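[Discussion] Sanity-checking designs against the backbone

I'm trying to build intuition for which residues belong where. Below is a structure token string of 391 positions. I'd appreciate it if someone posts a full sequence so I can compare it with mine line by line.
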């Protein structure tokens, strides 16, 4: 009898409130994106200095992670697994491969580890989204979803500040990787209990159905792919650009925390902006702002331009993510899964092409060519978004 009553009691105690659930989702995305995806960005300047890495090789490592993200996104559409299990497994995998990046190993092994981190981060992102739809939708508080997705910027800022502190202690890149791996494991341990088995898997399947493709849907896919290409160049190389502008001063390390803080804070404003202007208009204006931030270091080289770029790109990339996915859901209705999957695949493809463009054009150590291309594409896609939907 004691055991029969203790199980329901434990379930009641384990049932957390909406804020606690949202914070657990925030923490999961902080690990998945801030470390699994973007920890490489603040560590890259350290690797360029102490690991003998070149910018071209850095571009290949970044692209390996984005290839993994694409593979993870595609496999998540096929493999049937409960979101809670995918979140737990993905977080553990991120902790393991991030820690392993600190071990002495050949470049090819680094490529494999970054690819695996990309696969795991995609699984966590997609699964956290499905879990949130099930766990938070009943509260009817849009701010909760914004709070969850603020985890991306929170993780980016945390990783950047950690690297900044490690640089201050004259630490090398292996210590940075191992420290972030241990942090990932600690966060996973803290939030583990929140991701219990539920009916979230059924909710994730609910939107699947036949989708009728049209010009507007293709427009969204294309523009979201351009977004992936445009933001990923500064999102990968911003600290390197800042270091070049500062000629080695340790102040360059602040560029990435600024990027992450801007991303986290801007995410909290999405619900308000969408109510005032609508998804499409918010998305369009954000592309223009991002384009200006991307091209500014080319027009006005120097530290100030790099930090303004960090604010412009960091302050819009999560706004675009939320506005774009909500717009996809709006126009696709019950068949949104198909359209969002296509948008995510285009986004992932853009992320792969971006660092490769830098690698191809970095013979003189300049990012100018890639940045100009990204800015032109972002501005052009913003004009496409401004066209009225064709029904």
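Best answer:
Here's mine. Compare freely.
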């Amino acid at each position: 009898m004691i055991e029969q009553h203790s199980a329901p009691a434990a379930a009641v105690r384990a049932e957390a409130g909406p804020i606690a659930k949202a914070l657990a989702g925030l923490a999961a995305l902080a690990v998945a994106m801030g470390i699994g995806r973007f920890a490489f960005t603040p560590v890259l300047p350290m690797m360029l200095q102490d690991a003998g890495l070149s910018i071209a090789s850095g571009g290949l490592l970044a692209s390996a992670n984005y290839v993994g993200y694409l593979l993870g996104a595609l496999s998540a559409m096929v493999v049937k697994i409960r979101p809670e299990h995918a979140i737990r497994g993905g977080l553990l995998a991120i902790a393991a491969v991030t820690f392993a990046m600190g071990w002495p190993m050949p470049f090819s092994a680094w490529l494999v580890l970054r690819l695996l981190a990309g696969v795991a981060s995609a699984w966590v992102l997609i699964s956290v989204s499905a879990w949130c739809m099930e766990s938070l939708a009943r509260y009817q508080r849009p701010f909760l979803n914004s709070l969850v997705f603020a985890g991306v910027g929170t993780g980016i800022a945390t990783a950047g500040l950690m690297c900044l502190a490690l640089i201050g202690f004259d630490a090398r890149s292996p210590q940075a990787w191992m420290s972030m791996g241990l942090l990932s494991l600690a966060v996973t341990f803290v939030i583990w209990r929140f991701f219990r088995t539920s009916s979230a898997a059924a909710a994730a399947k609910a939107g699947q159905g036949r989708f009728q493709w049209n010009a507007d849907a293709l427009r969204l896919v294309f523009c979201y792919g351009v977004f992936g290409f445009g933001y990923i160049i500064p999102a990968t190389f911003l600290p390197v650009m800042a270091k070049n502008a500062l000629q080695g001063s340790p102040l360059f390390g602040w560029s990435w925390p600024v990027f992450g803080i801007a991303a986290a804070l801007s995410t909290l404003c999405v619900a308000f902006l969408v109510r005032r202007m609508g998804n499409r208009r918010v998305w369009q204006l954000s592309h223009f702002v991002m384009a200006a931030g991307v091209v500014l270091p080319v027009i006005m080289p120097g530290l100030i331009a790099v930090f303004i770029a960090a604010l412009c790109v960091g302050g819009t990339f999560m706004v675009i993510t939320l506005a774009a996915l909500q717009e996809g859901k709006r126009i696709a209705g019950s068949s949104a899964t198909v359209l969002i999957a296509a948008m995510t695949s285009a986004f992932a493809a853009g992320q792969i092409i971006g660092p490769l463009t830098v690698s191809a054009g970095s013979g003189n150590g300049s990012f100018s060519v890639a940045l100009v291309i990204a800015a032109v594409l972002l501005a052009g896609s913003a004009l496409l978004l401004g066209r009225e939907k064709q029904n």
